[in-house]
Amino acid sequence: MKRNRNIILLLLLACAQMIMAQHVLTGTVMDKVFNEPLVGANVYVANASNRSLGGSIADVNGNYRLSIPDQKDLSIVFSFIGYKTQTIKYTGQKVINVTLDEEGMALETVEVTAKKIERNSMGQSAREMISATQKLTLGGLETAPVTSVTEALQGAMANVDILTGADPGSGSSIRIRGTASLNASNEPLFVVDGVPLPVDISDDFSFASANSDDYGSLLNISPADIESIEVLKDAAATAVWGSKGANGVLIIKTKRGSKGRLQFNFNTKYEFSKERSGIPMLNANQYISMIQDAVYNTVSDLGSSAAKSQEYLKLLYNTKEIGFDPDWQYFDEYNQNTNWLDEITQTGFISDNSFSVSGGGDKANYRLSLGYLNQEGTTIGTGYERFNASFNTDYRFSDKLDIALQYSFTRGVTDANYVDDTDELKKASIRGHALTKMPNMSPYVIGANGQRTGEYFTPYESFGMTFSNDKVYNPVAMANEAQNRTIATNSRMTFVLHAKPFKSLDYFGTVGFNGQFTKINRFLPQSVTGVAYEHESSALNYDIGKDLLYLTTENRLVYNQSINDNHKLLLSGIFQTSDQTTSTYSSRSANTASSGITSPIAGSTTAKGGSGKTINRDMGLTLNGQYIFKEKYMFNAGYRWEASSAMDASGRWGGFPTFGVAWHLGDEEFIQRLGFISLIKLRYSWGQSGNAPTGTSPYIGKFSAVTPGYGDMSAVKPESPDLTHLKYETITSNNIGVDVGLFSDRITFAVELYTKVTDDMLQKKIKVPSSTGLSTVAWYNSGKMENRGWEFNIDVAAVRTTDWGFNFGFNISQNKNKVLELPENQSDETYTFGNKKYAYRVLMGDPLGSFYGYRYKGVYQNVEQTYAVDKSGQQIMDINGAPVVVKNGDQKVYPGDAKYEDVNGDGVIDENDIVYLGNSNPTLTGGLNFTLRYKKLSLVAAFHGRAGQKVINESRINMENMYGKNNQSVAVLRRWRSEGDDTDIPRALYDKGYNYLGSDRFVEDASFLRLKTITLKYQFPEKWMRPLGINKLEIYATGYDLFVWTKYTGQDPEINLKNPEDGSAAQVAIDSNNTPKAMRFAFGLNLRF
User: Among candidates 703, 846, 698, 711, which has minimal Cα distance to 786?
Assistant: First the structure.
């Protein structure tokens, strides 16, 4: 018992000593202006590392009581949201009373930026960077809002060539410094808040992943949440991201909270869009006249006694669709004058709203944002709906430890016009079908009163054509009733820990999780096709799903040490891993009851189904060192090791070095004496990066079944071998740059010269001799290609006064592509002679995207002109001494037929007369922007341009061929009819002739300069807003795509790249009548309070 009393006594004495070792501080926290208590004010004691050792909260009277530990170098910190923080050195005081000032209202005429120096992943500041980079701040998007990241980037950065679609939620094509690969990815890597997005498009299960992985859904990020975008162009800049960044990197930094009072932002915009006048088409009477003309010319060529002639004459005189028979039950439906394009277009509409709240104090900052966008396209049945939410917070435990957490959720619903991956519907857009639909036909059943009913007119057979054989359908029913809906849900979470164990050493640990869940449903009802219920195309339903889970980690050490004023050492080591799991499924079924029933077993006929799961893993280690002498002379070297699960074990690891030097010439005394030069920086960098093949474990060989087997036994045979010697496709970059600033950086410009050489190009599905027992090799390293070019960008603050301001920026760039070495086993193009067809070849010395065809020479005016001549100009005679008539293919030409250059002079136009016609790479790309301000009124404009791109105008081919039953444009009213007609358009023929071979007749220069946006905005004066508690109120009106200067005859010169139908690897620009960019008018306001 006595022992227990002693123990209790000792404990009481210890507690008393602890209490005596601590001091108690009391006081009040008051508002300085109104001398009122600040209830809930935070008071805490911090050590020398600014780490909190304890805290207290002010009560309703502003009083606080704080225990002070027995330590040295302590400070007392007083903070409250919306008030300036005060820090007071603790020297043993018993009472500290403080009054806090409110944070000043933001100055609307001056933008104040933080003094903190931003550094990249390798710890380099902008001054210390040696590589080619360019940064875009998106603050101005509040008054020229866009719906996607790519729309914001278009025309804003040198040699970042972006082509965007016009339909809501459509994808984009992005090229940074040209196309570097034939078969590997050419798209850049997107990195959001330090975490790369999964951009690999797997080819393992193309049916299930079709249309689900384009940039429209991938970049489902609200531009309102983005603070800045930085582009990394050369190998020295992209090295830290490895092979995924071989084609350039776009670093997206989202907005975060900042210290200060609670702040609310609300932005709203309403927008209307209207397409320009479309291509004028033949009316009903003109269409029937053209069909009659075509049949008459064909019968005249063949002779009336020919079997085909009798068939054509029957079509001409006995077809009710183009005849006149009032007793026919469909007479009214085929005696209309329908503008089918008008029937499927509408006035588009966008409603875009976003709200955010942000704030913070000494320890923590936060930002929460919500957004909702609803868009209806100008083509009926197209739309896009996006809901987004994001939250991020930063918490600083001390000067040596802080964390950041970011979470975002986006749900996008895209409604597009129906496409079918299994037949001709994939090749022709609904707009193209509407333009060429016979105009005398009605989209709806005509009632007894002569007016349209609500029932679609979709006969099983129309003018001898059916959906099954000719893929004809009712475009109006297609737009209104068919469904092609993609629901893309994206959840992204990032956690970053930053520790500073020593003054010169920083550690960053990052974990990123990205979940993308995509659901696609397509439905094609009978009202569109008119097929019978039992038909395999009746009520088609596609159900497609794709789930992608992407986990990334990064551990980064940065050592930044200055040795006196002359020497600085910057070392970094980065280890990264990524794990991507993709699960897919798909089904195609017929006879589905409705679009809402997506299950393939719900009373429908299942035609096809499949599922798959793939796992891709990557890891990489980057070491980089930089030495800086006198803050002017910089030397950098680095090395990247990486491994990919797409490579065989023997070649899984690849190494890629980088090197660079820079000289701040502007800091030299002889330059500074000039007075007006604020910056001259000379840069050179060299580096390598790699490209890995796409897909999961593509190096593993494949076997296929032997049908019917070997005797009575099942058997297999090798199809492709294991790839044990596959290497990374290597891209070697050289970059020379100069950055210049004049007159205190009121004028800044940069010039870049670069080359990119791709070695060991990845060739896909290379054919091998059958004697090997194999058919193809999945991937093979062979070939060499070069991109070289230059860039120039300038920003000028021309006028900067209290009342007036004028800034402008301009960028222009050129990239030239050339194939230096042809790949081994490169087979000739699969070109076969025929109408509409071009040849797509990969030839040494020519750029990728080149196409070849015939030189069009107009129309044969008379019989004499149809006689063949040899290369010397002498007429060719047959063995009887009679002149030889030119043949287009196997058919003799007649007056009025298309005339092509006979290159080899043999009197026959065939594949031997093909010549180079052009390529789809632009010669120049660029952009221009300016801001003109007078007091609170501003005018802002942005232009985007491309020059030198050649486009195959397939829409003209379809609308000027006069070959079948499709409607044509009014251009064919100038067609040749008789000798002496001064025209370049051949005569009409029906199912005969070669009057629309792939030639330069349909190749056009698609150069353009587009006024992307022009905005007039007004900011209300502060003295009006402050009494209302409003920090900022701004209203604006914006016009989008109001003017386009071009000689291109199609609806829109901005033509995206796509793969030709012959399976060629090189993408080309083919105008297939996609939706043109409409004129858009927006009105909105920005409110901050």
Answer: 846
